[in-house]
Design brief:
The complex is a heterodimer of chains A (532) and B (437). In chain A, the strands form four sheets. Chain A has a two-stranded antiparallel sheet. Chain A is mostly helical. The radius of gyration of chain A is 26 Å and the shape is globular. In chain A, a hairpin with a 2-residue loop joins strand 3 and strand 4 (244-247). Chain A has helices at residues 5-12, 16-22, 34-53, 64-76, 82-90, 96-106, 109-123, 130-141, 146-155, 161-164, 168-171, 177-189, 209-219, 267-277, 283-294, 296-311, 331-343, 348-357, 359-362, 389-399, 403-407, 411-429, 443-451, 453-460, 466-471, 476-488, 494-506, 511-523, 526-529; strands at residues 222-225, 228-231, 238-241, 244-247, 250-251, 257-258, 385-386, 530-531. Chain A is built from 29 helices and eight strands. With 437 residues, chain B is α/β, with parallel strands linked by helices. Helix content of chain B is 33%, strand content 16%. Chain B contains eleven helices and 17 strands. Chain B has helices at residues 14-29, 48-54, 104-108, 126-135, 148-156, 210-228, 234-252, 264-270, 274-288, 306-330, 396-406, and strands at 38-42, 59-65, 89-91, 98-100, 113-119, 166-169, 191-193, 292-297, 337-342, 346-347, 359-360, 364-370, 377-379, 381-382, 389-391, 414-417, 420-423. In chain B, the strands form five sheets. Chain B has an eight-stranded mixed β-sheet, with helices on both faces. A three-stranded antiparallel β-sheet of chain B has the order 1-16-17, with no helix packed on it. In chain B, strands 3-4 form a two-stranded antiparallel sheet. In chain B, a hairpin with a 2-residue loop joins strand 16 (414-417) and strand 17 (420-423). In chain B, helix 9 runs parallel beside helix 10 (306-330). The radius of gyration of chain B is 23 Å and the shape is globular. Chain B starts with 13 loop residues before the first helix and ends in a 14-residue tail after the last strand. The interface between A and B is large, with 78 and 74 residues.
């Protein structure tokens, strides 16, 4: 018998419709045609070969609870609700994981969350611009391809206010064109050419000063400010190479150069065009066309960045160090994913569906072998990943029980509730640690989680606080089960029930305080902070 | 993460690049090119252990005059010149060295100070200039550098210390800066006091007694450790739990942030000003063993009424600064504590129509005292009107190299960011030998 029924009934009061509603949200039916399946099989095969070559036996499959938590955090940016866990746990269908993937990918929260992910990847330390996020959400909702979004970001069109929201990559960098071109190369091609500014790259034979100034030349005519972006008629880029001054030509990373053909003959006409129709000619358009025609840099970069997001490490790592001396961990795999993107209109949803349907995504994060777990680029075990600040803030708010979110069963309501929670979470994120490669926790975050009123309020604020609701559960075992289901979206093991029941019995505090402490300990535990 | 030792050189010759490329290849083969993160520290000429021992027990205090203090009214007066302003120059305890007349007390301890009058840092925009002098290098698009103070905190940190490695006190609202950790990562983020001299979240939440506070933390650690067992990436959980362990230490040290624990005579000595209180707290932190402390004093951006504002600001500085130096000296801390007074830039020789001075980076001053510093010297000089550096020009990288050298850290040591070697101070920098003991 499941341990949860009574506690579930208590916590579910008022939101009983949600679980039922959520199990049948899918509207379009799984588009995961045989086509996607065949790519997934090729991904699985390449990894199997990779493991065989390294003589490694991968970890086993993760359990239902881990898969649900992983998929929901990765695709909706939040932890699963208790109701979602109970529904998923009890669903008998053999292909329930596929159904879940499909619900999440077609659900209202996916574009909201993926917008945050892409914003961080493209904007780096300038992430968080509300307008840019609105643009990304809309573009993803309309299922625009990554190529079109790239075009929107670098050349427009920027005629309407909505369209103009896409220009924030440029407007944030227009006062520093070096940074604009270096950041563009990193964000869209996975290449860091900044070391080649003063001399040919000391570490990477691929990048010379010509590459640096060639890239800069695509951006050198960019001008404008918060009001908008335009192009100057002329801006020559000169640089010193071995003591001699050179004039740079627009040059893509492949070495292909471009003449300034787009520089208009008639300056007045160009001005009119820019101001009247928002049309932009010249350098950036050259770059966009050249890179989309070349395809390799552009497609490999986004494929690698998506892989990095789902597995905590790029196939090429760091993600902005794609060059000949830093081969992908599994070269055929990166090529497969990149080519598939090109063939399918840079549909990010498709690639994401492939990645989360693969065996490697299902692997457990527990390593049972005698030896220490194999290093990250073997991808033979899931490595813990820290939640992003937004994922954590949203999850903290949701876990402490915002009913309005769970009651929102219609997609529009759900999207609205998600955005409201995210807005509420803004107050928390300043005190949380950012997810970066080589993540390290700060004492500042620990202090905040331990002593701040904001966190205390999550536990004890109001008549329906988490602590109050939990304290209504009389049986200690059921209380532990309720805490685990509500906060960790899983059932506790027998050992955990025993251990926590024992802890409860040694406490002298009143029931509500005790529940608050129990919830706090789980809410701030590593299992909540990291993705298993 | 890896630690490697390799020889370093200052030049950027082809052989150097070959060497780095080989290092990179080796690590690529070993599969350790993993993350864009701090990946170990290599030291030239001596072992890392030796360097650490040598640098032990040393501490650093930065006094940051936010907005840009005027060198004319402080360290490099030009009385009687068109650029000099209304104040006189006064003799100091060092024969032949003069300071501005607003610093009579500082003049008396000039023999403990080294003044650099020949900074040329070129940049005159607040934020960019502050980044430049704080990190010792211009901003780079692809790599975020940590501030010198963050590097010092990491280098001078004591193992198992309960207190943070870096306490930054910045209570003025203008020119506010939180020290950037750059590529060094969250573990090195300073304790930053912004709203109050008492750190945020250092008191337990209302209604939670010490016993429950401890009990729930034990449970948190237990649940976390069980989760981490056997997981790939468990070292992140260790770091997460370690951060919570430091919470206990900080809460136990809360009395250090309470200035009422100082004798009233001492509080009176520092004076009843915000800067006085900040510096008294800084001294308490240093005495308790915090390796890196920064106190910011705003706001020196005197585009209007430069002389009136400096009369107030410099007078306050003069009193508090000398009190602090003497207090450190009385407690035997000055020998092991480097004190640095600096800004993002100085102020223009030209006095503008609002009787103000604007931003100026072509010729300005900073001052140092204590650990590793030769007292009573002046390095460099400006021309008669203070318009340009006449002798001994130094830049932000030289400044950084000097600070590192003073506390016995080799500025040529390298960090690794992925495969890329990053020296603490820029390759072409030179410590200012004149001011080093």
């Amino acid at each position: 018998m499941r341990r949860s029924t009574i506690a579930a009934a208590l916590l579910l009061s008022g939101v009983c419709a949600a679980a039922a509603a959520e199990s049948k949200t899918s509207s379009e039916g799984p588009p995961s045609s045989g086509d996607v399946q065949s790519v997934v099989q090729r991904v699985d095969r390449l990894l199997a070969q990779h493991w065989a070559r390294l003589n490694v036996t991968p970890a086993g499959d993760a359990d239902d609870a881990t898969i649900l938590r992983r998929l929901t955090l990765d695709l909706a940016g939040r932890i699963p609700t208790r109701e979602e866990w109970l529904a998923y746990r009890d669903e008998p269908a053999a292909d329930k994981r596929e159904g879940l993937v499909d619900r999440l990918l077609t659900g209202p929260e996916f574009p909201l969350h993926l917008a945050n992910v892409l914003d961080a990847a493209v904007q780096g330390r300038d992430a968080g611009d509300g307008d840019f996020l609105s643009y990304l959400r809309r573009a993803l909702d309309q299922r625009r391809g990554w190529d079109e979004m790239y075009r929107n970001m670098l050349v427009g069109p920027w005629e309407t206010d909505e369209q103009k929201q896409a220009d924030r990559f440029l407007t944030r960098r227009v006062k520093d064109l070096d940074r604009m071109s270096t950041d563009a190369a990193r964000a869209f091609f996975g290449v860091d050419i900044s070391c080649a500014k003063c001399h040919d790259h000391p570490l990477v034979i691929d990048w010379s000063q010509d590459h640096y100034y060639g890239m800069l030349s695509f951006f050198s005519r960019t001008t404008g400010g918060k009001g908008g972006i335009s192009e100057k008629k002329q801006a020559e880029v000169k640089f010193l190479a071995g003591g001699q001054e050179k004039t740079a030509r627009m040059m893509f990373l492949t070495g292909q150069t471009f003449d300034d053909a787009a520089a208009p003959q008639d300056a007045d006409k160009e001005d009119k065009k820019e101001k009247g129709e928002g049309e932009v000619l010249g350098g950036r358009r050259q770059l966009v066309e050249a890179s989309l025609a070349e395809r390799s840099f552009f497609s490999r970069n986004i494929a690698n960045r998506l892989w990095h997001y789902f597995f905590g490490r790029g196939l090429v790592q760091p993600v902005d160090q794609m060059h000949s001396e830093n081969e992908p961990a599994i070269p055929e795999l990166l090529a497969l994913l990149a080519d598939d993107l090109v063939e399918h209109d840079y549909d990010l949803r498709r690639t994401i569906r492939i990645l989360v349907s693969s065996r490697v995504y299902r692997l457990d994060s527990r390593w049972t072998g005698e030896e220490p777990p194999p290093s990250a680029e073997v991808f033979a075990v899931a490595r813990l990943r820290p939640l992003s600040r937004r994922q954590l803030a949203l999850s903290l708010l949701l876990a402490s029980g915002d009913d309005s979110f769970r009651q929102a069963s219609q997609p529009e309501e759900r999207a609205k509730a998600w955005l409201e929670l995210q807005a509420q979470g803004e107050a928390l994120i300043a005190s949380l640690d950012q997810r970066v490669d080589g993540f390290e926790s700060s004492a500042g975050e620990a202090l905040f989680l331990t002593n701040s009123e904001a966190i205390q309020k999550l536990l004890r604020d109001g008549d329906h606080s988490l602590a109050k609701r939990l304290s209504a559960v009389d049986d200690d075992g059921e209380l532990v089960t309720a805490v685990y289901q509500q906060l960790l979206s899983r059932d506790p093991t027998d050992a955990e029930v025993e251990q926590l029941t024992h802890w409860i019995n040694t406490q002298r505090a009143d029931r509500e305080s005790l529940c608050a402490d129990l919830a706090w300990a789980v809410l701030t535990s590593a299992e909540f902070r990291f993705l298993p | 993460m890896q630690s490697r030792t390799m020889p370093t050189r200052t030049s950027c010759r082809a052989t150097e690049h070959d060497l780095h490329r080989r290092t990179f290849l080796r690590s690529a083969v070993a599969g350790t090119t993993a993350a864009l993160t701090f990946g170990g520290l290599a030291v030239g000429r001596e072992s890392p252990q030796a360097a650490r021992l040598r640098a032990k027990q040393k501490q650093v205090l930065f006094i940051w005059l936010a907005g840009g203090a005027s060198q004319f009214e402080m360290w490099d007066p030009k009385p009687g010149r068109p650029t000099g302003g209304p104040f006189r120059a006064i003799p100091t305890s060092v024969c032949g060295t003069h300071f501005g007349e607003l610093m009579p007390k500082t003049a008396k301890i000039a023999d403990r100070l080294a003044v650099v009058r020949s900074l040329n840092t070129q940049i005159t925009a607040h934020a960019i200039a502050a980044d430049l002098i704080s990190t010792g290098r211009p901003k780079e698009a692809a790599l975020e550098y940590p501030e010198i103070g963050v590097v010092l905190a990491k280098q001078l940190a004591r193992r198992d210390a309960e207190l943070p490695d870096y306490v930054s006190i910045f209570l003025s609202s203008e020119g506010h800066r939180r020290p950037a950790v750059g590529f060094l990562g969250g573990r090195h983020a300073p304790l930053h006091l912004r709203d109050s001299l008492r750190p945020s979240y250092i008191d337990p939440p209302a209604g939670l007694d010490t016993q429950r506070h401890t009990e729930r933390e034990h449970l948190r650690q237990l649940v976390s450790s069980q989760f981490a067992r056997g997981r790939a990436g468990a070292e992140m959980v260790d770091g997460y739990n370690a951060a919570f362990s430091r919470v206990r230490g900080l809460m136990r040290s809360d009395h250090l942030f309470d200035l009422d624990r100082e004798p009233s005579a001492m509080r009176e000595r520092y004076g009843d000003t915000q800067f006085g209180r900040n510096c008294l707290l800084a001294r308490r932190m240093l005495e308790a063993g915090v390796p890196m402390v920064k106190v910011a004093r705003g706001f020196w951006d005197s585009h209007h009424d430069n002389f009136e504002s400096h009369r107030e600001l410099v007078t306050d500085f003069d009193h508090v600064f000398t009190t602090l130096i003497r207090d450190l000296e009385d407690r035997g801390l000055l020998d092991s504590t480097l004190v640095v007074v600096f800004s993002e830039f100085g102020r223009t020789p030209k006095i503008n129509k609002d009787v103000g001075r604007d931003h100026y980076a072509a010729a300005w001053s900073c001052a140092l005292a204590g650990c590793g510093i030769r007292g009573g010297v002046v390095h460099g000089k400006t021309d008669a009107d203070g318009v340009s550096v006449a002798d001994g020009e130094v830049d932000a990288a030289d400044f950084a190299a000097t600070v590192y050298s003073a506390v016995g850290i080799d500025p040529e040591e390298h960090y690794y960011v992925g495969p890329r070697p990053v020296p603490l101070a820029r390759e072409d920098s030179h410590p200012i030998k004149t001011v080093l003991s």
